[in-house]
Each structure stands twice: as structure tokens, then as C-alpha cells.
From TrEMBL:
Record PANTHER family: FAD-DEPENDENT OXIDOREDUCTASE 2 FAD BINDING DOMAIN-CONTAINING PROTEIN, FUMARATE REDUCTASE
Region (Disordered): 38-60
SUPFAM superfamilies assigned to the protein according to its UniProt record, in alphabetical order: FAD/NAD(P)-binding domain, Succinate dehydrogenase/fumarate reductase flavoprotein, catalytic domain
Chain intervals with Low complexity compositional bias: 38-47
Annotated protein name in UniProt: FAD-binding protein
Cofactor: FAD
Record key words, sorted: FAD, Flavoprotein, Oxidoreductase
Length: 628
């Protein structure tokens, strides 16, 4: 996405144009009550708590929260009554609405986009112990071990009960979803480039990503790597494989997913049960009764007027993240904004691939809810600029120095971004493919769930000309898009590093680093960083291969912000004292406690997996159904 860059960061104290400081603000005014409007749950008032004041509860000088809109009765053009109002019709909102409707509730779903443009993101659905997975030989797994691994990777900064709700309920959620798929169905809007004669859950269209060792036979999970464990526990709904797609080289992107087609069946089922979808409705302000319970929401219509939705039971917030509000992202995602500021960047540079503006977060905070404390997670993970992804070869920074245990991929982003500016590379030798097959299925690892991905990458790397300073394009073995990456090949380490832009001084240091690494490999143990012995293969048989990326010591947010509201174990939103706000639940990217430090997870695709699962859990608990 191309965005304008503004010079907002002159000196250490300047916040920048358009970012208002709010020192001294003590009370946030609420929405003006809509006089005479219908309220099935009792006399109503609107959120007017000052507990959300960012200067009181957040270490930022930016008023990212603002004040609730003042809504008068003459701006309300329609009123709807129901039991559950679901704010947001994405991955979590779809499943929340379906579960609530299955629980007998009258449901209204408020979706900000027009119906013709409604589409969920993503393709990989991480989940645990679905019958679909077990039937293919993946599981059943120890659910408690997976919960513990999530906590380990996040340093205990996430909420074990929130993670448990995901792990223990995700299999049932996934099986329930795909049980609704009955192909073909003329009501389903097809995804571009998909083969409509094939069901989106056909084995040719949806598969399980696996560790590269599967090329030689079955892999036993979990796979341990760098002190962390990974499980093959993801459904990838990417459609039939495309071996070549794109430009004249025959190597390009094939980026589409059939996940939305699957989700449409859940929308239709919910509608069959009476759920009503309201498009171009952006939730703006929660309505409370005299006790402080949430009893409805005001939504803004496309023409700027409002619709009132009354909720006899409550509201489920599924409005997504807050990435499109760049001031909010800059204020709350402190690690990223600090790194960006030090690199001379502005809030616009931090913008993720999101159109969500944090409405759910703000509406809850106006009621006294709080967003999880620092460190606030975003979807960051390490990428090496190589078609083989995060294989634990030797990694060198721009000074030619080794800097970490390369197998500990969960630590790689935080460690790598702190290295000196310039090229960071991964290098190996003619034994590279043998090392590749020893790893797990970490995010960014080679994916042998479809062997073509890895085998065609190997074919491309094998065909890279030795000694060509331009290198050659090779298909990605990690993602379904098959996006190309440049790989270099040379007869000497010095020549290889020269192709990748290393300075003479760095090449000298890198040569010493390779010699030290080989010494450790010959000894059979990494005494420097304790990388797993199975990855310690000496780099001593040319030709040598390598790929690199430019480390700029900052990074944008990525696909999405993962920071959300503090809730209890049943996803009910809490106030600043840790007490439940009656009638208010959160799911998807409105929900905090999932990641703690970032997207460092033992199962790929769990952002969507958590969204659909927590959405279903929220819909169930709000209507009194049992959850694990």
C-alpha cells in the first residue's frame, strides 16, 4: 500500500501534525442520549465514563481515544430490537453470530462494508484436534502442551485461559464450519480464479502444511527446534496448486484463498436461523442502562445518520484491529513506533494492511474497559529474504557476524531487528537441502504439505548459475503464492557475500564467522549459541548459496494489529478494576490476551483460528451454551 510520508518526528519530543496532546483531560463526555427512543432492556444512558482517558492509563501523549460521538434523536432513522448485536462481520463476527443464533438468540450483525465488498481475510486456519485433522493423521495432540507452548513463546505475557479457550474449542469450531459446506451452492459468491467445479474443502483445495522432513516419510509431531515445539495443525484453504503464475519468467504470485467461500456457508446458516445482516453499518457508540450494563449500540449509516440496535442480552465486539487509525497504532504499539521514529519514519509508515479503525476498542474504553498493557503484540515474524524461509542455516548480520541461535525462530524478529543496518543473510553449501529437511513447521518454514512447493524451490535453487552477480529468481517454498526471491551462488564465501552487497570489512569478518561455525560443526555442538546439533552442518562444500534482506532496524505492523481488550476467561470485557462489564464480550482482534509479545506461535494460521474460535465461544457464552 502506498501512503504519504510526513515529517512528524523532528527531535525527541515532537509528536507531529494532527496528533493532539491531551494533558489535563480528566473526563471523557459520552454520547448524548437519544430522547424517547425505544429500549427493551430498560431506561438507557450512553457511555460517559472517564476511565478510558489515555493519559491516565497509557504511557502516551497522544489522544488516540477521543470522545464518543454525540447522537441526537433526530439523527436516528431506524431502530431494531434483538438479543445479541454482533459488531463486525469478519472471521470472528460470522462465527459469533452463528453460535448465538444456534443458541436461540435473535441476532443482528453490523458490517461496515457494503454487501458486495464483504470478504474475510486469510487462508490458513490453525486449530487443534479437529476430526478433519485427525482423519488425515495429524493428532490427536496434547492440548495442554500446546497451551503451555503458547505461554512459553510469549513469556507469560498472554492469558493462559484465553489461549485455552482457543486450543480446546478450535477443533469443534472447525469441524462445525466445514460440516456446513455443501458444494455447489448457487448462493455462494465465488472467489476470483477459483475452480468452481471443485469444493473449497476438497483435498485438492485445502491441505495441511507439514515440516519438510515429510519428503522422506511421516514426521512425528511436535517437532522440537531451538527449544520450541511446533505442530502440523493448520488447514490451508488456498485452492488448487499453481506451479507457475505471473510474468514472463513463469515465476510470480498466486495469491488467492477460498476461505471466504467456506465462511459464506456459516453466514447462510446463521441467516437461516434468523440472524439479520445490516451492511454499511459502522458501530460507533455503546448504549448502557442505569446499572452500566450494555443494552445496545448506535451504528452510523452510509449517509451519516444513525440506526439504533437494542440488545436484550448484550453486544459482541468483533470490529477487528485498529491499524487504519495510524495515530492509535503509533501511540499504542510502542516498540514499533519507537523503532520507526528512530529510523525517521512517521505514523503513516507504520500502517498495516488493515481498514479497521479500532471502533470496538474505543467504544469499550469509553465504558471504562482497558486495552492490554505493554508489550502490545502485532503480527511480526522473522523473514530472511530467501525462498527457503526460516531454515536454521548460518545467519550473518551486515558486519559479517553471527548473532543468535538460528533455530530459535520465535526469538529471531526481536534479535534480528536490533542488528546493524544493512544486509542480513542466510548461507549454506551444497548440503543445504539435507539441512532444510531437519526442521519443524515454524511460521516461515518450508512447507511440504504440498511437496511441489519444496521440490520446485529446490529445482530453482539447483538451477541458479554459479558466479552470476545477479543471482536468479526462485519460487517460494513457504507460502502458497510462490513469490520469487533472489538466490546467489558462488564457489567462494567471499564472492557470495560480495554479490549480496557486503563490504570488504564485513566479508573479512564473515569469513572468520564461517570458520568458527565450521569448527563448532566439526565438534558436533554449538558452544556459542546452542543451536540443535541436527542443524550443525559445516559450510565447506561449494558451491555456496545465500540470500539476504536489508535490515533497516524498523518494520511496519504487517497484516494486522493483535492488541485487544482485557477480558475474563469467557471473553467478557472487564473494566479497570477487573470487574465484568455486563452485556459486553470481545472476540477476534478486539480480544486481548492472545499473543502477549507478538505472533510467535507453535501453530501457523492461528490468528484466523483464534478469530473463528473465540467468535464461536463468545456467541455461546453470551447465550448460555457450554464451552470447554
Amino acid at each position: 500500500m502506498n501512503v504519504s510520508r510526513r515529517d512528524l518526528l523532528k527531535g525527541s519530543a515532537v509528536l507531529g501534525a494532527g496528533l493532539a496532546a491531551t494533558a489535563g483531560l480528566s473526563v471523557l463526555p459520552g454520547c448524548a442520549p437519544a430522547a424517547g427512543s425505544s429500549d427493551k432492556a430498560g431506561d438507557s444512558a450512553l457511555a460517559n465514563s472517564g476511565a478510558g482517558n489515555p493519559n491516565d492509563h497509557y504511557q502516551t501523549g497522544i489522544d488516540w481515544l477521543g470522545t464518543p460521538p454525540e447522537i441526537s434523536d433526530d439523527e436516528v432513522t431506524a431502530t431494531f430490537d434483538g438479543d445479541i448485536i454482533v459488531c463486525g462481520g469478519g472471521n470472528s463476527g460470522i462465527q459469533a453470530a452463528l453460535a448465538a443464533a444456534e443458541g436461540g438468540a435473535k441476532v443482528h450483525v453490523l458490517e461496515s462494508s457494503a454487501e458486495e465488498f464483504r470478504r474475510v481475510k486469510g487462508r490458513d486456519v490453525g486449530h487443534v484436534n479437529s476430526q478433519w485433522l485427525i482423519n488425515q493423521g495429524f493428532g490427536p495432540y496434547d492440548e495442554g502442551a500446546i497451551v503451555n507452548e503458547f505461554m512459553l513463546r510469549c513469556g507469560g505475557r498472554n492469558n493462559a485461559e484465553i489461549v485455552k479457550r482457543y486450543v480446546y474449542n478450535s477443533g469443534e469450531t472447525f469441524d462445525h464450519m466445514i460440516s456446513l459446506v455443501s458444494w455447489p451452492d448457487e448462493r455462494i459468491k465465488p472467489v476470483n480464479r477459483s475452480s468452481q467445479e471443485i469444493s473449497p474443502i476438497d483435498p485438492s483445495a485445502m491441505y495441511v502444511p507439514q515440516a519438510a522432513g515429510a519428503l522422506d516419510g511421516p514426521v512425528e509431531y511436535p517437532v522440537s527446534q531451538g527449544g520450541f515445539k511446533t505442530w502440523a495443525s493448520t488447514a490451508s484453504a488456498v485452492g488448487e496448486i499453481s506451479h507457475m503464475f505471473g510474468d514472463e519468467s513463469g515465476i510470480g504470485e498466486n495469491d488467492y484463498s477460498r476461505w471466504d467461500e467456506i465462511q459464506q456457508f456459516s453466514i447462510l446458516k446463521g441467516q437461516d436461523l434468523g440472524a439479520e445482516w445490516h451492511y454499511e453499518q459502522r458501530a460507533r457508540c455503546l448504549i448502557t442502562d442505569d446499572s452500566g450494563a450494555v443494552v445496545g449500540v448506535y451504528a452510523e449509516n452510509a449517509d451519516g445518520t444513525y440506526t439504533r440496535y437494542n440488545a436484550a442480552t448484550g453486544v459482541i465486539l468483533c470490529t477487528g484491529d485498529f491499524g487504519a487509525d495510524v495515530n492509535m497504532a503509533w501511540a499504542l504499539l510502542a516498540e514499533h513506533s519507537e523503532l520507526a521514529a528512530r529510523a525517521g519514519k512517521s505514523p503513516e509508515d507504520l500502517r498495516p494492511e488493515s481498514f479497521c479503525e479500532g471502533e470496538g476498542h474505543k467504544m469499550a474504553c469509553w465504558l471504562g474497559a482497558q486495552i492490554e498493557p505493554l508489550p502490545r503484540p502485532v503480527m511480526t515474524y522473522y523473514w530472511t529474504g530467501a525462498p527457503w524461509g526460516t531454515v536454521p542455516y548460518l545467519w550473518l548480520n551486515s558486519e559479517g557476524k553471527r548473532f543468535m541461535n538460528e533455530a530459535a525462530v520465535s526469538n529471531a524478529w526481536a534479535t534480528g531487528i536490533r542488528q546493524p543496518v544493512g544486509p542480513t543473510c542466510t548461507i549454506s553449501d551444497s548440503k543445504w537441502f539435507d539441512v532444510l529437511k531437519r526442521g519443524g513447521i515454524e511460521l516461515g518454514s518450508p512447507n511440504a504439505g504440498r511437496p511441489d512447493y519444496v521440490l520446485e524451490m529446490k529445482e530453482d535453487v539447483d538451477n541458479v548459475p554459479v558466479g552470476d552477480p545477479n543471482g536468479a529468481r526462485c519460487r517460494d517454498s513457504v507460502e502458497c503464492e510462490r513469490a520469487p526471491h533472489i538466490v546467489y551462488k558462488a564457489d567462494t564465501i567471499e564472492e557470495l557475500l560480495g554479490f549480496m552487497g557486503f563490504s570488504d570489512e564485513a566479508i573479512k569478518e564473515a569469513t572468520a564467522s564461517v570458520e568458527r561455525y565450521n569448527e563448532l560443526c566439526y565438534q558436533g555442538h554449538d558452544a556459542d549459541f546452542d543451536k540443535d546439533d541436527k542443524f550443525m552442518s559445516p559450510i565447506d562444500e561449494p558451491p555456496y548459496i545465500g540470500a539476504f534482506f536489508e535490515n533497516e532496524r524498523w518494520k511496519g505492523i504487517g497484516l494486522v494489529c493483535l492488541t485487544g481488550l482485557i477480558t475474563d476467561s469467557h471473553l467478557q470485557v472487564l473494566d479497570g478494576d477487573g470487574k465484568k462489564i455486563p452485556g459486553l464480550w470481545a472476540a477476534g482482534n478486539c480480544l486481548g490476551g492472545r499473543y502477549g509479545t507478538g505472533y510467535v506461535t507453535p501453530i501457523a494460521g492461528n490468528s484466523i483460528g483464534m478469530a473463528i474460535t473465540h467468535g464461536r465461544v463468545a456467541g455461546k457464552v453470551a447465550t448460555g451454551q457450554e464451552v470447554r
